[in-house]
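Before the break, one more example. Copy the sequence into your notebook; we will annotate it together after we see the structure.
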Amino acid sequence: MAYLDEKSLKGHITSKKYNNIYMVFGDEKYLIKHYTALLVKKIAGEVPDEFAFHEFTKEFEMQSLNIAVSAVPFMAQFNCVVVYDLDVNKLDEADYEALKTILSSVPDTTALIFSMPTLDTSQKNSDNNKNKFKSFCNLLVKLKADVYEINQRDAVALEHQLAKWADKSGKKLSLPTASKIIFYCGTNLQVLKNELDKLIAYTGDREEIVVEDVEKVVVKKLEARIFDLMDYVILGNLEKAYAMLHKLFELKEEPRTVVRLLGMSYIDIYRARVTTESGGDMKETAEFFKYGARSWVLSKIRTKAERLSTNAIRESMTEILELSARLNTVTLNEEAEVQKLIAKLLLIANKERQYA
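Here is what the structure looks like once it is written out:
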């Protein structure tokens, strides 16, 4: 079932419309917190009346929720009830039935908001046969509730958001520089906001945040470091490739994790390469393989894909897969084996350039 999106929620908050039941969930937790606060402000006002505003977090008695939902707002237009991170999978049958009874009789003067600012509501981390969350959302839809799914934005939207935040702080941030921050940090808005705040503080009175600032200040995610490692390998830069590998080991990254992410990066390159060779569309490839918020990776990696032939990429992937299999079946000096793998990948890349 399709739920309402971020654009719909923004429009609703700025309208004069109200509903009795809301659900705000998704994988972009920063935005869920942000929009929940705006929704509460819309319904309960800048300073909510203490007798007409009630908050519940995770564990509570259903009877207490029922009393709050049924309360009459004497000094306010609406009675606002916010329930944070309710894990319906942990409710026993009696509480779940009691919750459904409460939902079926929410007064017109009450706005009941379910918000998931920290709870992982995805199906992937649960037994689908036991995960009640989707059924709960569908129940809310049947009850005419507004159910909003707020997921991570694409790279272009994130670039503009970073530039907008920087502008509000009196800083200039170009979209290419914003793209570099996203490449290093990923697509989680809270992480991006934290890194941008660090950059704003670091640049002091200087007007513009530049790429050099990003290189010095921003903490790279492991995936970004793996991208750097792969780039050095493809370019045949042995010194930088091994320096990056040793850095990963100094950071206590597991060799198996390095191999797994390196394999994923080569798969990304392979998909980008085949898409380019066939004249396909990178967006369609991203959609087919369900890249979601990571769809920007394929466009970013396109230039790397042009440096190796399809056969060289396949040969590299074979070496990575063979080591991955050995690591899972035989006791080895894992760090030494990864170092050997990098040597083999460098040889493949160098052989490619010799015949170019």
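The longest strand covers residues 79-84. Residues 255-277 form the longest helix (23 residues). Try to locate both features in your own notes.
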